[in-house]
Amino acid sequence: MKHIKTVFITLLSVFLLLCGCSNSAKSESITPELEELVSQAILNDNQSAYYEGECPAEGHIIFGAETKNNTTYVYTYISYANFGFENGNFVDVSGGSMPAVFEFNSADYELINVAYPEDGDLYAPSIKKMFPKKYVSEVMNLSDADYNNLNLQLDQYAQAYLNSINREAVIGRMADFDYVLPTDLGISVEVSNALVEMDKYISNYPYWIGNKEVVQNGVRYVYEVAFDKENNNLIYSKYEYGNPDSLYERILIDSLTGKRIK
């Protein structure tokens, strides 16, 4: 009886060991294929989350990857941006950066889920739940070199796009460039705020004095705002890129009252 009991305990121990092995995480190599999977997942998951520019771009840092229960978890910090032309520069007009955990089916590497941290006071606790302990400090304390690396990756997408349309422009973030706001020209804050809310007439136009480009139905248009100081008018003009005489729209706003003149 004692011998049978010993055998039973031994078999139970082996069974539990095997179960434990089947649920244990296996570290994965960071291959070019895995990098590409993450790149595509970032682009696909964020394409409708931000203001639409004309060139989507992504950057990422992979801290590590592991497979567990037929799921491959990739632990990352990502950046996503949409680039568009503003005042002739190619600018990161929208996007965001954040930690993310990508889950792929380990059999065919189909994306199963993307997990992002929660906001506010729940940010740090959610990071600790999402990431293995060995990555937490690194995820929450990215260096300047890390951020520069992410921006460099974004800029590479932007440069490739410029090459594809045979265009030259300075690439950067909005903070890299100077924008002249209506208030910089003496227009009151009240009028400036009213202009921002005037969606019916000028929703496609920039909120600064200058221009931006928008591709609509395959045609590139310039939306431009100019200030006529002598007559106290803001002039909103829409024309085809490269052809200022092809005026599709011209709106005059009284810069003293914020009301449309014509």
State the order of secondary-structure elements, H for helix, E for strand.
HEHEEEEHHHEHHEEEE
**How many strands, which pairing sense, and closed or not: the largest β-sheet?**
6 strands, mixed
The percentage helix is 25-40%
For the termini, the CA-CA separation is: 102 Å
Instruction: Tell me the total number of β-strands.
Output: 10
* Strand-pairing-aware structural class: alpha+beta
Strand content: 35-45%
Number of continuous helical runs: 7
Oligomer: single chain
Mean pLDDT over the full residue set: 89
User: What is the CA-based Rg, rounded?
Assistant: 27 Å
Q: Outline, from the CA principal axes?
A: elongated
Poorly predicted parts: 2-22
Summarize the structure.
With 262 residues, this protein is an alpha+beta fold. It is 33% helix and 36% strand.
Task: Give a written overview of the molecule.
With 262 residues, this protein is α+β, with helices and mostly antiparallel strands. 33% of the residues lie in helices and 36% in strands. It contains seven helices and ten strands. Strands 1, 2, 3, 4, 5 and 6 form a six-stranded mixed β-sheet that branches. Strands 7-8-9-10 form a four-stranded antiparallel β-sheet, with no helix packed on it. It is elongated and about 75 Å long. The chain starts with a helix and ends in an 8-residue tail after the last strand.
